[in-house]
Amino acid sequence: MPGGMIALVSAAHSGVPRPRTAPELSDAALFVMAVVGVFLARRALRARFAKNRQRPQD
């Protein structure tokens, strides 16, 4: 591994964990993305099954 890469890897984290006092912004963003994903999936499934009902049966 080149020397510059070792310096980048070792500087990424001090190794000392901080106590969590509240959810991080990434936690909230992940929750929002999950809600949006569920909303879009439900909407797509509703549209798919509504399309099947509107078609006349032969």
In short:
The chain is mainly alpha-helical. It is built from 2 helices and no strands.
Question: How many strands, which pairing sense, and closed or not: the largest β-sheet?
Answer: none
Number of strands: 0
Ranges where pLDDT stays below 50 over 5 or more residues in a row are none
Question: What Rg is obtained from the alpha carbons, in whole angstroms?
Answer: 24 Å
Q: Which sequence of SSEs, written as H and E, runs from N to C?
A: HH
Strand content: under 5%
Q: Number of DSSP helices?
A: 2
Shape designation: rod-shaped
End-to-end Cα distance, whole Å, is: 68 Å
Q: Whole-number average pLDDT?
A: 82
Secondary-structure-derived class: mainly alpha
Estimated helix fraction: 55-70%
Characterization of the model:
The structure is a single chain. This protein has 58 residues and is mainly alpha-helical. 67% of the residues lie in helices and 0% in strands. The N and C termini lie far apart (68 Å). The model has no long low-confidence stretch (mean pLDDT 82).
Task: Give the SSE map.
Layout: H1 3-11, H2 25-54
What would the keywords be for this entry?
58 residues; rod-shaped
